[in-house]
Design a protein that fits this description.
- The structure is a homodimer.
- Chain A is 28% helix and 24% strand.
- Chain A is an alpha/beta fold.
- The N and C termini of chain A lie far apart (68 Å).
Chain lengths: 634, 634
């Protein structure tokens, strides 16, 4: 045996050393990376496809890999021996391209509808100053002359100064004959000078808005003068390799070194996304002076490297709800090291900054006369009911199914995802793929459509079990049991069949049941019923379009007039963007967090009854879903 | 030849590698350390004595080294070969023990006499809080509960938070059932939480006061509750190896890497002194939460790593006069990393924080009816004239002679220094040594005494030249020319003769001439004469006692009623201590700096005339010194 070989995995930036001749799949396992492979290394399922970017392994040919993919450097990890140092990308976790929802047109259309103010007045601004030359008569230092110029131009008398700004001040002031660009940050009444540079005409000042989800992380890069979104990127959260849900991450973080690791993985994921966004937008990372982050309470703690332990120990309090301002350098973020970082405030351990920020992006706080219900169905589901005057909130454990997690053919709402789907009576499947091209999997909205269609066409019964009498070209039986063939491998990107299994269906039923029963219980808690709700706002990683009709057919949403429902997409990201744009929104979100009352559902009487009742399609009490009953009546 | 050997030099903490058999003196030169050795390596002058702390060199015996010293590991660097790895201390730069002038009694005696307030109300304080346990009913996080407790106890509504405090908060709050020690820092109206720890009864909270001199650095470690000085230390500034005066340091700092080096040397010197002071006082460095620093403008720039270049380029403006608050970690200081650092403000490029802080320790600003003159004769001389209502200041280049720099037998006012001296008519020399024991050299006050006595007894004439007719047992001729033998080698610590040369005398005359002529010119500038001055305050590194009579005899001070003169010692250090003790003094020193008017003497008409006139003993116009004329009249 020669000396060990190194395999470098992207996007995780993880190295592992293995003996020559080891299989790549074993290297992936040794690196502790989360990775799907169902055939047990036989080379038949084709799930373990990876792309070799540097170096060459020794691969056996496999029917599960198309020639087209093989030509692009794709190999099956279970059929490839490591014979030299390799760099390998795991496509299951490659960056997800997200659409820039918030373009100028969208903003223009929605600015009067949401709770936040739609203005571009961020807490960070760039001011051009002209600093008079020093003279023999005036012994004021460079700093004093900058202070005078700042006072004259902006009225700011006192400011805090970043140390590194002082170190370069003399040269910055002299480079362009006293004309300088000053970057200022405002926190409540205090100003801090984040940067001073020789003036450069047309130089950008940018900010980041970022949603830190348990499963996926998404961000926008925005111009802080115009508010325009310059770039967007999203990917799986690299923390996935340490556990798929919040509880497993909290357990993992019990040791200080592992907490550091989790923080590092969150930051690494974000830094990769920043690198992608700045490249697309041709912005320098050093021009990013502000970051607005929104995540659930555990994600926020892990992002900050704060032990999350007490979140899951009675009485379940986080270390902090409202997060003080921090500098980017303290977190290792790939922006200007002096950039300020703001995290949206949490309400408590199970309702976090993703929800408070998300509310900014809804119309809920516009009006005291209408009562709205807000549902964010991410890996964790959170609900809010209320209006301008009062807000009550609760959490439920939804699971990652709607974000494509834990599903054989699930994926986030990114390129290649089937985001909408329809069955024809002849068994043909029509679908729309994000970005066009061959499908790679199904995202949340596609899964909702599929489940609804399977139910309506009788492929599954109200228990979510396949109807064996339908066995044929679509409902097929293979090594994994019964499954519905959405698309044949030859028409799919990865060259393998797109199949949904009974286990996947069970997963989806649990998720939708958790969300519906939580809505129902929350309303009971505040003494309301569904018909009293004027508007339902639905958020989450489903995709760009969630079909409300299908969501009602599977019992995810209650059977109410369709015009009451509004699908808003990733409100956490949108909220983070609103906070980035306007200091006033930053104040508003803090006020929202303080206003919200948290209800613990697990201890509510009737919790189990509600939940088990919702584990049917659409519900054990079919009377709650009259339009669905009509549809499925024989 | 074998492989190179490493020599580690203290107190510089510098390593150098040399071939086996190299002489230690060459190793010192290779390391670029400032080191005196006049005989050129012949083993006769005995100046190159060093102490080998680890390892053994191969030394030739020398008459210039006493058996006593040899027994303690001392060797002559020029007579010692490096035959293994060595750790070597250079006694010429060993730590200087300073007396704790500011003990409780001294404070008590002087508190009503100085400009500053004498109170212990520092900007940093420790507050004990009791944080209620979390409950299921209240979802407030740990941070929110600490905030409530802080508001209740202190009335502080808003505070900034150090990031690392947040990371340990959950455990700190739980360790002692909610009883915590909170360290708070106040900057103007803003509060910052520097630390939170589980409560510990009787735990100290300490601060540092530090004078950063061009030649020597001195500090006090003080208790921030009682104000008591717990420890003191001083040493040569390690920057000496990059140049002895400000101009050479500024030139050295022209390259960024060398600026970093100078900053590192200042911080290294200070960190060594901190290590000594905390050891003596049994204080943990992590309990030091505040540092108050005073230095001239160049020293302050170098301490902060700010390029000092423009200080010596017309129109001579520094980067900053008033220094924003910084954190200890930003500078690499060996205190609590979150400790705040305050530097006394400068007036301009040549009147720095050592002077503004120093004024706090004088009575000058007490009274508007008396006009005072303040002289700080360090390596740079600075003068201030004025009262409560107005202050005019100027600088002069005095040179390091009064601090023992650039002199064959000079040394700082530390252990072994002759601090007072008297000649008897029979030629006998009486002297007092700091700390008792055998003399090692002469500090400033000893040198002033010696020069005055040599002049009065006719050993030197009014030009500072030796009178050859006095050749004998005291005025001797050796390889260095004429010299006055202060003490024979056998009675000296280093075993070699203590001699003052004509070159040393010339050095001292230039220094005293620079100070006197600057005083004279400054007064002319404000339309005053010496007789209008009600009080003269003299500061500087002379030693604990400066003999005013002798200072007048050599023409350092004007010939006025003796009761007008007051010698105050290291006012820069004392001022830094006053700022440490009381937030109000910090505000006062900023007001003082703004109030001062700077006068550039070099461009004053009559500058050269005044200076050359003062290059005599006591002065070319003997009529200015009537009492001295009487004394030396034949």
């Amino acid at each position: 045996m020669g000396k060990n070989l190194k395999v470098h995995f992207l996007p995780f930036e993880t190295d592992v050393h293995v003996a020559p001749g080891a299989f790549l799949l074993d290297a992936i396992k040794k690196a502790g990376l989360p990775f799907k492979s169902s055939c047990g290394g036989k080379g038949t399922c084709g799930e373990c496809v990876v792309q070799v970017l540097n170096g060459r392994g020794k691969s056996r040919p496999s029917a599960a890999l198309s020639d087209d993919l093989a030509g692009q450097g794709y190999v099956l990890a279970c059929q490839t021996e490591v014979t030299e140092n390799l760099t390998v990308e795991l496509p299951q976790f490659q960056e997800i391209s997200i659409k820039t929802l918030l373009d100028a047109k969208f903003i223009e259309e929605n600015k009067d509808k949401i709770s936040a103010v739609f203005e571009v007045k961020p807490a960070v601004k760039r001011v051009e100053l002209t600093v008079p030359r020093p003279t023999l008569e005036d012994h004021a230092g460079d700093l004093e002359r900058v202070r005078r110029a700042l006072l004259k131009k902006t009225g700011i008398k006192e400011a805090n100064w970043e140390y590194s700004v002082l170190r370069n001040l003399a040269e910055s002031v002299r480079a362009k004959d006293g004309v300088i660009d000053t970057v200022l940050f405002k926190d409540k009444q205090d100003w801090t000078v984040l940067d001073i540079e020789p003036h450069q005409a047309g130089k950008r000042i940018s900010g980041l808005a970022c949603d830190i989800g348990t499963t996926t992380i998404a961000l926008y890069l925005a111009d802080l003068v115009t508010g325009k979104i310059l770039g967007a990127a999203s990917s799986y959260n690299q923390q996935l390799k340490c556990g798929e849900d919040i509880i497993s991450r909290i357990n993992y973080a019990a040791e200080p070194a592992r907490l550091e690791e989790l923080q590092g993985l969150a930051v690494s994921t974000i830094n990769h996304l920043i690198a992608k966004a700045v490249k697309d937008a041709r912005v320098s990372p050093s021009d990013i002076y502000y970051g607005s982050f929104a995540g659930n309470t555990t994600m926020t703690h892990l992002f900050l490297g704060i032990p999350p332990r007490y979140i899951r120990e009675e009485p379940y309090v986080p270390t902090l709800n409202e997060v003080p301002q921090l500098a980017a350098r303290e977190l290792g973020l790939a922006m200007n090291p002096r950039a300020r970082v703001q995290c949206a405030p949490a309400v408590g351990s199970y309702v976090g900054g993703d929800i408070t920020a998300g509310l900014l992006a809804t119309p809920i706080l516009r009006d005291a006369s209408k009562i709205s219900l807000f549902i964010d169905a991410g890996t964790n589901g959170e609900l809010v009911v209320g209006n301008k005057d009062w807000l009550v909130t609760c959490a439920c454990s939804a699971g990652p199914a709607f974000e494509g997690g834990g599903m054989k053919s699930g994926m986030p709402a990114s390129e290649g995802a089937i985001e909408a789907l329809k069955l024809e009576p002849n068994g043909k499947v029509l679908y729309r793929v994000v970005g066009g091209g061959k499908p790679r999997g199904l995202c949340g909205s596609g899964l909702v459509d599929l489940m609804a269609e399977l139910f309506v066409y009788g492929y599954i019964d109200k228990n979510g079990k396949f109807n064996e009498s339908k066995l044929g070209s679509r409902l097929v039986l293979n090594g994994n049991g019964l499954g519905f063939l959405v698309e044949e491998g030859k028409n799919c990107h990865w060259g393998k069949d797109l199949v949904i299994t009974e286990r996947d269906i069970t997963n989806l039923v649990r998720t939708k049941g958790a969300v519906y029963s939580a809505c129902s219980l929350l309303l009971k808690n505040v003494g309301l019923t569904f018909d009293r709700i004027d508007a339902f706002y639905i958020a989450g990683g489903f995709g760009q379009h969630l079909d409300i009709e299908n969501a009602i057919r599977i019992g995810l949403l209650p059977d109410l007039p369709r015009e009451k429902f509004h699908y808003l997409g990733n409100t956490s990201l949108w909220g983070a963007y609103l906070i980035l744009l306007s200091e006033q929104n930053g104040e508003m979100v803090n006020a929202i967090a303080k206003k919200m009352t948290y209800v613990e559902l697990n201890t509510e009487p009737g919790y189990m009854h509600e939940y088990t009742g919702a584990l049917f399609l659409p519900h054990t009490e079919i009377g709650l879903f009259p339009t669905v009953r009509k549809l499925i009546a024989p």
